[in-house]
Amino acid sequence: MPSTPAPGGLCADVHTIETSAGAVELTVRAHDRTRPFLLLHGGGGVASMAGFAGLLAERTRSRVLLPTHPGFGGTPKADGLTGVGALAQAYVALLDRLDLADVTVIGNSFGGWLAAEIALLDSPRVSGAVLIDAIGIEVEGHPQADIRGLSLPEIQRLSFHDPSKAPRPPAAGTPGPSPDVQALVGYAGPAMADPTLAGRLGRMTIPMHVVWGESDRIVTPDYGKAFAAAIPGATFTLLPRTGHLPQVESPEELLGTLLDLGDR
């Protein structure tokens, strides 16, 4: 299990997990303290969760795991790892490998879909999940925005209440879809949804919280309300002045919401 330096003074451990998709390498940064959280990033890559991971660990004194999904950030991806369900199985196997219990899974966007799939696997190691502006279901009259072919400024206008809060992109890039976008489509498909997911959400058995930015134009609040309505007993919270990436745009408000939910 080799360790490599990661931003913020952390080490990134590489775990090789045997799954039905073959041997899967998972690169995981860890803020190692007490109660465990598993944070799952969306199409923006691990950088879109890194700041919030540090905030969550510092304020709650918790153990926070922040993996990079295989194929994102230049990490290797097993040939058999072709869908969200297979990736969810790899993360449950990771929790088994680390012998963790009472894990809360928190996912944003694609990571929210992935968190839902992990919850549906009924692992005794997972005690709850938080879905933040998740994608993955089909909602009549409220389709997801198709970001393929859009420029970065156009995507930022859909993603942020205040686009000036969007992270600056790298100074140089290559033409065409980024490797992270290609990795995302490899898991989620061009439609970025699973027509069976909404129906399967009805058999959730653990506490689920759905958190949404009121200014999200990638997947609107009405889409989010439909997501929550599909999950028995789910709590829905709308964050004001926030778009698709609350952990980037309004991290303090998101943290406050998570702490409030934990006290209920």
TrEMBL record:
Statement: the UniProt record of this protein carries the keyword Lyase: no
Sequence segments annotated as region (Disordered): 160-180
Name of this protein: Alpha/beta hydrolase
The UniProt record lists the keyword Hydrolase: yes
Ranges annotated as biased composition (Pro residues): 166-178
Pfam families membership: Abhydrolase_6
Keywords, sorted A to Z: Hydrolase
GO molecular function annotations of the record: hydrolase activity
Superkingdom of the organism of origin: Bacteria
Location of the AB hydrolase-1 domain: 37-254
